[in-house]
Amino acid sequence: MEKDQATNFSIGKILPAVLTIAIGMLLVMMDTTIMNVALPHLQSAFNTDINTAQWSITAYTLALSLIIPMSGWLADRFSAKKAFAGAIILFTISSILCALSTSISELIVFRVIQGLAGGIVGPIGIAMSFRLIPMEKRGSMMTILGLPMLVAPTIGPVISGWLINIASWHYVFLINIPIGIISIILILKFIPNYRPNKESKLDKPGVLLTPFVFPFLIYGINQGAAHGWLKTKTLLFLVIGVVALIAFIRVEVKGSHPLLEIKAFKIGEFTKGLLLMWINQIAIFGAMLFVPLYLQNVRGMSAFDSGLMMVPQAVASFIGITIGGRVYDQLGTKFAVIPGFIFSGISLYLFSTVNAHTHYLFIAISVVLLGMGQGLVGMQVNNHALQSAPVKLISRLTPLSNVMLQVVNSLSVATLTAFMTTSVHHYEMKENHNSPSLPSVLHGYHVTFLLLTALIIIGFVFSLFLKRKVA
Fold this sequence. Notes:
Elements: H1 2-7, H2 11-30, H3 39-45, H4 50-67, H5 71-78, H6 80-99, H7 104-132, H8 138-141, H9 143-166, H10 171-174, H11 176-190, H12 204-227, H13 232-254, H14 268-297, H15 303-309, H16 311-330, H17 334-351, H18 360-387, H19 394-431, H20 438-463
C-alpha cells in the first residue's frame, strides 16, 4: 500500500489538502493562547474577578481533554472529512457565540462548546495527513502541519494584544469567523472523501470513564498549582482522576474497540518517540512560560512587547522544522533530533545566566536557538512515534498522543511554577529577606532554566538510542 502510494505521489496533488488541514489546525491552536492577554479586559468588561475570568481558558482546556479521546471513533464512524468539517463549522459558530456573550457565564459555556469542537481537529488532521502522504515524504510534508503547533503559541498573544488595542476583546473571537469560513470551503474542495466504517463500535465503558480521567487530572493539577496540593478540592479531583485513569487503562487494554490504542506502548520506537516528545514539550512549554515572565517582571516589558520578543522563536522554528523534515526523510529521525536537543540545551543554559541588565541581543540569540531546537525535534519525534505503529491504528494513536500532551502541559506548568516559587522562597530565607527581591526572583529563574537544561540533556541521551528510521 505504501509503495503504491509513493508511486502515485505528487506534491501538487496533495499540497492543497495538507495546507487545508494546517489552516484548520492553526485556527484551533491559536485559541489555546490567544485568551491570555484578554483576561484583564474580560475582567473589566464583565465586572468579575480574575479567577472567574480564568475559567474562560480552563473551560476550553478541559473540553479539549474530554473530546480528544473520542476523535478517533468519530473519524472512523462518520469519515474523517465529515468529522473534520463538522468540527470547524461548530468551532466557527461557537466563536460567534463567544463574541456575542453578555456575561462571563455565557462566555465560559460557549468556550466549552468551542473546546469540544477544537479537540477533534488536531488528531483527525494529523491522521488524515498520514493517510495522504507516503512514508518516505512524511518528514518534509508533515512540516506543514508542524507549523501551526510552533507558530500558534507565539502569534496568538501578539494578535490578541493587537486586536484588543485597536478594537475590543470581541475581535479575539470574531477573527475566527473569516478563517473558519475559508477553512470550511477548502475542506469541501480539497480534502478527499474517506469511507466511514459503519461497523465501528463505540467503546462505551471508555466513554463513560473519559470525563473522570483527563479533565479531572488536568483540573486537579491546575488547582494544586494555584491553591496548594493538600487542599481538599485538589486531592478530591486528583484521586478521582487517578482511580478513573487506572480503570480506563484496564478497559482500553482489554477492549476490542478501544478509544485509545494504549497497547501501542508495547512498540519500543513508539514509546521512545512519545517520551522524547514529552521531554521536548515540557522544556519548550516551560521556556515559553518563563521567558515572557522574565521579560515582564524583571525587564519591565508589557505583555505585548514580550510577545513580540518571542517572534524570532517562531521564525527559527519554521527554519528548524523545514530542515528537520528533510533530514528526517533523507537520513532518519536521530540526525534531526540530536542537533535539536543540542540547540535547545544551549538556549536554556544561556537563559539560566540572565540578569536585570542582560543585552536584548543575547536574549534574542537564545530565543532563536530555542526555536531551532523546537523545530528540529517536535514534529520529527511525533512522526517517528506514529510511523513505528501500523497505519490502521493511526486514527486511535493521534488522540492518544494529543491527550497525553494536554496532561503533560498542565503537569509541567504546575510543577515548574511550584519549583520556581519554592526556589525563590528558599533563597529569601537563606538571605533573610522578608519579601521577594530581585536577586531571589532571578535565582528562581536561574535554577528553573537549569532544571529545563538537565531535562533536555536527558532527552539528548535518549535520542542516541532511537532507530535511524522506522518502517
